[in-house]
Structure formats: structure tokens, C-alpha cells
């Protein structure tokens, strides 16, 4: 390892965003250590050193920071998934325990070893359910987080961890940067099994269904979300880390779309005429969008990639995975 390389530790490197982030940091000339409880499912990690380890274990957390003085820590490791995992209520205790333990461990190790520049990936799930009851959501501002009232225990844990990292900043001088992700999507991410997000689920359903067939959507399909393509997410992360702004700040799109129309977009990309069957299932909030005023004000940036462009790339990759599995 050359001493003139910046050194980054990416926790959650075996996941979707973490895997892409490792590649981005390598492209920028970093030496990267990635850590996760699992290897990346769809491609070899770009990290120089990939450690298989459980970050709920303090011994693992101590070991990964014991031999290198890292310039930057990216903490993306969490117990997470799509609506089918987060909103059933069946996994609440496990989700809160796993994610909170990881964050408590890594904040302490970063402080103990003097890692000063830290990124924490929070979520739009921290925003109060009460202001997300209409499909036509005007956009969630960062200040809307309080009075608190997330719609899931996943969101409550994220909010707790935001406050914990900011407390470490105040008490110990750690420079933390907190971003609230709004539905990040793209290739090389989970696309089946129940933990996939809506764009991947719609792409998979359309790819699997023959012309003239039928796909299922939970609820009436009029619930709305914004979805941010992975490359834009990485741009936001890196700009935030290179700034003196702590956050929390939204990293998301303001291009609102219903789940029905997201499915129709996937059909259009595939050139298929399919029908939609609405069934009961976990839904989350009625409408959620990102207000990007603050990130533009503080970082001079807002995402530019259109949802359709990102969906084209994502559909192509998922269709290839469906074909391989057939």
C-alpha cells in the first residue's frame, strides 16, 4: 500500500450501495477496505481488502481498524430491505438490535482510533408518517424530522443513530456527515427474495412475465415515491464528504411517481403489454418525496439523472439475471 493513497473503510461493502461506493473510491485513487457479513452477491468487490465479518461483534470492529489509520469511514452497514421486509412488523426487534449495535460499535471504534471523517447513511424512513399520508407529497425537508414519528422501527433506529453520531461530533470532535437516502436503485442490487426495493421488483416482475400476462402490485398502486439512481447517490455522498457540512441532508430525487406508473415504465422499457392486479400487502407511507433545497444550498448540487434513464439500465441488468436463472 502506498502511503500517499487516502485510505477508506467501507462498512456494508457487500451490499448494493456499499459495493458501488468501493468502486467509486477506487476510481478516485483510494486504498479501500470493505467489510460485510457477506460477500457481494453479484460481482467481485473492488476493495483492495475485503473482510468477512459481523460488525455486531466488537472484536471484529476493533480488528478492522487496528492495523491502518483510515482517513475516512463510510458506515452503510444495516439490517434492511424493501417494504416486504421492513413493514410487516415481523423483523422489528432484529432490525433495531442489529443496526443499532453496528452503529454503536463503529462510532466508538472511530473515536478510539481517531478516524475523524465519517459518513453515516440514514434514511427517508425517519420522517414522520403523519406528513406522508397524501400521494401528492410536496417534498420532505430535513427540518420535518421533528416532532418525530417514523412509520417503522427501521426509521426509529436510523433517527437514534443520527443523534448518536452527532453526539460523538459534539463531545469528541468527530467530523460526521449524515445523509438521508431516498430509495436508491440501480444494477447490482437485490432484485428478488423479499428485500428488493420497488424499482427492482417492478423490473423483475415485468421481465419474468410473458406478453399479455399479469403482474401483482400491493395496494391500489397509487402510493407514490421518488427513486434515485445509484450514480447520483454516489455523487451526493462524495460531495458531502468533501464539504464541511454535517447534515443531515436528503440525498434523493424529487421526481415523484406512483407505483402503478413505475410498473408501466418498466413495461414500456421492456416493450410489453401487461395488466396489473392489485393485492393486499405492506405499503409504508402513502406518499414520499425528497426536498433538495438544502443540498443545493449547502453543496451546490442536486441530482440530474432522470428516473427513466436509470430504469433503462436497471431493467436491462435485471432482465439478464432473470434470463440466467430461467
Q: What does this protein look like?
A:
- This protein is an alpha/beta fold.
- The chain has two domains: 7-184 and 228-251, Rossmann fold (3-Layer(aba) Sandwich); 186-226 and 255-288 and 305-325, UDP-galactose 4-epimerase, domain 1 (Alpha-Beta Complex), CATH 3.90.25.10.
- It has ten helices and 13 strands.
- It has helices spanning 16-27, 58-64, 83-86, 92-113, 153-172, 198-208, 230-241, 259-270, 293-299, 307-325; strands spanning 7-11, 31-36, 49-52, 72-75, 117-123, 175-181, 184-185, 214-218, 224-225, 228-229, 249-251, 257-258, 275-279.
- The strands form four sheets. A seven-stranded parallel β-sheet has the order 3-2-1-4-5-6-11, sandwiched between helices. Strands 7-10 form a two-stranded parallel sheet.
- Helix 1 (16-27) links the parallel strand 1 (7-11) and strand 2.
- Helix 4 runs parallel beside helix 5 (153-172) and helix 6 (198-208) packs across helix 8.
- It is globular, with a radius of gyration of 19 Å.
- It starts with 6 loop residues before the first strand and ends with a helix.
- The mean pLDDT is 94.
- How many helix segments? 10
Strand content: 15-25%
Strands side by side in the biggest sheet: 3-2-1-4-5-6-11
Question: Which regions have little confidence, pLDDT < 50, spanning 5+ residues?
Answer: none
The domain tally reads 2
> Which CATH-level-2 architecture of the largest domain?
3-Layer(aba) Sandwich
The CATH first-level class of the largest domain comes to Alpha Beta
Reading the helices and strands in chain order gives EHEEHEHHEHEEHEEEHEEHEHH
| CATH level-3 fold name of the largest domain | Rossmann fold
Query: What about the largest sheet?
Result: 7 strands, parallel
Helix content: 25-40%
Distance N terminus to C terminus? 43 Å
Gyration radius, to the nearest Å?
19 Å
How many DSSP E strands? 13
Classified in CATH, the superfamily of the largest domain is NAD(P)-binding Rossmann-like Domain
Structural class by secondary-structure content: alpha/beta
Amino acid at each position: 500500500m502506498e502511503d500517499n493513497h487516502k485510505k477508506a473503510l467501507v462498512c456494508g461493502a457487500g451490499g448494493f450501495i456499499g459495493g458501488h461506493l468501493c468502486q467509486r473510491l477506487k476510481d478516485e485513487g483510494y486504498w479501500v477496505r470493505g467489510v460485510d457479513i457477506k460477500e457481494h452477491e453479484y460481482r467481485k468487490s473492488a476493495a483492495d481488502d475485503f473482510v468477512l465479518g459481523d460488525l455486531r461483534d466488537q472484536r471484529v470492529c476493533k480488528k478492522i481498524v487496528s492495523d491502518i489509520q483510515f482517513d475516512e469511514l463510510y458506515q452503510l452497514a444495516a439490517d434492511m430491505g424493501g417494504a416486504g421486509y421492513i413493514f410487516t412488523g415481523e423483523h422489528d426487534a432484529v432490525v433495531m438490535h442489529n443496526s443499532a449495535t453496528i452503529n454503536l460499535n463503529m462510532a466508538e471504534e472511530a473515536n478510539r482510533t481517531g478516524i475523524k471523517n465519517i459518513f453515516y447513511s440514514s434514511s427517508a424512513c425517519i420522517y414522520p408518517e403523519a406528513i406522508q399520508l397524501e400521494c401528492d407529497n410536496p417534498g420532505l425537508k430535513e427540518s420535518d424530522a421533528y416532532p418525530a414519528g417514523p412509520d417503522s422501527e427501521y426509521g426509529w433506529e436510523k433517527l437514534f443513530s443520527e443523534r448518536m453520531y452527532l453526539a460523538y461530533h459534539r463531545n469528541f470532535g468527530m467530523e460526521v456527515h449524515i445523509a438521508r437516502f431516498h430509495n436508491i436503485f440501480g444494477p447490482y442490487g437485490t432484485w428478488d427474495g423479499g428485500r428488493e426495493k420497488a424499482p427492482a421488483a417492478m423490473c423483475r416482475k415485468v421481465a419474468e412475465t410473458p406478453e399479455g400476462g399479469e403482474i401483482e402490485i400491493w395496494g391500489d398502486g397509487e402510493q407514490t415515491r421518488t427513486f434515485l439512481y445509484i450514480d447520483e447517490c454516489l455523487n451526493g455522498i462524495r460531495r458531502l464528504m468533501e464539504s464541511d457540512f454535517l447534515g443531515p441532508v436528503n440525498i434523493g430525487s424529487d421526481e415523484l411517481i406512483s407505483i402503478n406508473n413505475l410498473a408501466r415504465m418498466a413495461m414500456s422499457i421492456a416493450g410489453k403489454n401487461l395488466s396489473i392486479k392489485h393485492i393486499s400487502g405492506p405499503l409504508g407511507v402513502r406518499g414520499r418525496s425528497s426536498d433538495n433545497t438544502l443540498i443545493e444550498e449547502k453543496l451546490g448540487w442536486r441530482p440530474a439523472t432522470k428516473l427513466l434513464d436509470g430504469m433503462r439500465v436497471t431493467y436491462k441488468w435485471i432482465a439478464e439475471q432473470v434470463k440466467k436463472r430461467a
